[in-house]
Amino acid sequence: MCINIVKKNKSKKKKRISPSVVACIGTIIIIIGGFFLSYNYIMTKKVMVYEYMSNIFYSRGGENTPQVEEENINTNDKGIPEDQIDLNQYIGQLEIPKLNFSKGFYPKDSQFNDVDRNLLVVKESDYPNVSKGNLIIAGHSGDAWNSFFNDLYQLSSGDDLRVIYNNKTYTYKIVNIYKEPKVGQIAIYRNKNRTTLTLVTCTNNDSTTQTIYISELQSVV
Prior knowledge:
Layout: H1 19-60, E1 92-96, E2 101-105, E3 120-121, E4 134-138, E5 160-165, E6 168-181, E7 196-202, E8 209-220
Parallel strand pairs: 4-7
Antiparallel strand pairs: 1-2, 1-5, 3-4, 5-6, 6-8, 7-8
């Protein structure tokens, strides 16, 4: 007698993914994809917002504009119509080798000589070729697009600064760093028998003071 043994295959039930789970996964994928696709657009809009806010501050004059001791500096007195200024018409270049920093600056009477949009050459400044003069340059610190002096806190006495002006390179050495209360004007302490370069910016991690970097001319080539 032959006995047929029939093996019964146990059917396995397939687990189905809930439609709501599929919908959630799809939504997440769409959101992530949309984020990467729109990243450049968002960054462009961010720069436009900074530009817009800068123009507002510029029209109001800026309450924190550094000033020379006992002198009032009117940063709105530019005197040259904006449509008559060449955007590339820098008159000089500030270089800080230790920070790999290099940025041009405009004439004192230029409409683009504005701390909210560029480096600011303070009105009472002397240009580098003036013997025993003092070139004063101010810039913002922080995390905004115009925070050109944000890394100045890394500088120390003895560090070199350079200014390129009229096809000559003026090399300075920092001799003093100090802080002043942020009250709308600052005191500049320097040796008036020396030609100097003064940098001014808000103090790193301190919203109540500004830091002043005094440097003296070492050579001109």
